[in-house]
Amino acid sequence: MGVWAIGDIQGCYGSLQRLLQKIQFDPRYDTLWLAGDVVNRGDDSLATLEYLYSIRDSVQMVLGNHDLTLIAAYYGIKKSNPTIDPILQSSRADELIGWLKQQKFLHTDFKLGYCMAHAGISPEFDLGMAMEYARRIEQKLQSANPESWLRAMFKGGVERFDRHASPEDIDRYIVSSFTRMRYCYKDHRLDFKQKGAPTPEVRAKGMKPWFECETRKQVDLKIVFGHWSTLGFYHDEHVLGLDTGCLWGGKLTAARIDVPEVNIVEYACEGCMQPGKE
Asked: Which of 60, 107, 217, 237 has its CA at a distance of 20 to 30 angstroms from the CA of residue 258?
């Protein structure tokens, strides 16, 4: 029985299947942790979502920004595109989106010693805060009529955490940090514009990867995250980054996390898009 964490799939169904073959994944015995962005841009988002739904009892998944965009498109809040049109036009759209809405923003497993969030955990949050705030936005997304709340979440990211802000702005910060965060400044302000690797030029602007923030609040579990293809695979004692750019012709990466030493298996992907052509 293995527990395998996988980075951003983004609808690259063929690459997912070939990676699962390499790790000899069997949903009867094994568990997949999915770091979000399972759909959008790839060549078969519908098949990807249908497959994951078919093995849902063996899946632990967190929502990424592209998954949220799909849900928003389902409600008419965001425009669709050719890669997610087949999902929205499917006779099973209600069923599939209904399942997607039930997924988490933060998954924790104290026995394994890991937690998972698509972009990571804000430097402002310790683990207890992160769990509380994740539940807060999960409940709102899972409500019977989440449209007005979702519409507000797509107004743009909130860069600073302020307990005294409006409930809407607090929610926007929570959603942004869990799904869109890459860089932060020394004062914990987040930057949502810079998408590249942490080069010396980026660092000269005062930005660091969120997990390098010296005053980041303590999280007593190792954090699995995706979302950052230009960072690529990253592993230290505190975090495990698994977005290795499958969509762009990089790799799709699986990490077995139920063993003393993390076991990494990769599949070299053909790529569905050219970098810079989003």
From this structure: 217
